[in-house]
Design goal:
By secondary structure, this protein is mainly alpha-helical. It is built from two helices and no strands.
Length: about 90
């Protein structure tokens, strides 16, 4: 029972790290884009709410094009590992 709990906690820990690694490129680039657009808006006194949406959308699409393969590779590896762990844990209880 204790080994199963440790294995499940290990999988949960790896799940959180995988989610962070997959989300980080998009979040950081969108944060930087929003900051730059906000500075430009403050400097030019343009207070249009929709102005920051298009650059963020374009940058998000670019990041997904560039890093999408690596992100899917991380998710695929994690999925294979977690399915193998489920099979091991399911087989141990029988």
């Amino acid at each position: 029972m204790m080994d199963e709990t440790a294995a499940l906690l290990g999988l949960a820990d790896r799940m959180l790290w995988t989610a962070a690694l997959v989300a980080a490129p998009v979040l950081f680039v969108c944060l930087a884009t929003g900051l730059v657009v906000g500075i430009v808006q403050a400097a030019t006194s343009i207070n249009e709410q929709t102005l920051s949406f298009i650059p963020k959308l374009a940058v998000t699409a670019g990041v997904l094009v560039i890093f999408g393969g690596a992100m899917m590779g991380l998710l695929g590896d994690f999925t294979r590992d977690i399915l193998a762990a489920i099979a091991r844990l399911g087989g141990a209880g029988s």
